[in-house]
Amino acid sequence: MAGGQRSRYHGYSPDNPSGHPFTPEWGCMPDLPHPRAAPPTVRSGLLHQQHGGSGGAAPVVATSLILLEDGLQTARKGYAMEGLAKLDRIDISILVELQKDGRMTNVSLADAVGLSASPCLQRVKRLESLGYISSYKAHLNLAKITDSVTVFTEVTLSDHKREDFAKFESNIRLVDEVLECHLISGGYDYLVRFMTRSIQDYQDVMESLLDKNIGISKYFSYIVIKSPVRKDEIPLRKLLRH
User: Fold this and answer.
1) Hey, is 101 helix, strand or coil?
2) CATH number for the 142-224 domain, one of 3.40.109.10, 3.20.20.140, 1.10.10.10, 3.30.70.920?
3) Locate the HTH asnC-type domain: which residues (predicted)?
4) What is the C-alpha to C-alpha distance for residues 148 and 71, in angstroms, rounded to an integer?
5) Alpha carbons 66 and 80: distance in angstroms, whole number
């Protein structure tokens, strides 16, 4: 974001044990390398992120990688995954159309993909039974319902043994305000997306997590001011190059 302006909000850290948040530092701040982080290496389909520590050999955390390229190459040949039925051009078109409108009638869907109604319905049922379509949901216009604040939070754990990651993840899953949580390579451990009614509500959630002692060493909070791009549809044709 060279030349731009960014609001960086700091949360809990050892230098700020009270957890008092949201002291803005304006300006573009470069991302500094984490003192514990070593460059990740890829071996045998696993991402190895080595974390340094005091004394002895540093533990290694291995996270499985989804080998997208191999999977997409297979799908391009007509198979989405080993052991599952073929996905052809019409199947992919059905998935693309249903992403746009999950409530469209079978007749409209059949017209969109160039089928008659009966075989189109059979294909949809087949895609559902094989797990390609996991569910149908309504997208809410939240601005018409209530006020909300979205916060992205960088979380660094105190320790990096397998049980430390498991403890954090099992607890963060229970937080209703958490919409996403990702294990990240680089300068911190997790990127978490929260949605709360207000900044104060967000801080209450974070203080509750700190009180539970789930291994959080420090966190940095980034409040979303504006979302110029938001997409829910997976770019399926681009991923499959179909």
Assistant:
1) coil
2) 3.30.70.920
3) 87-189
4) 38
5) 14
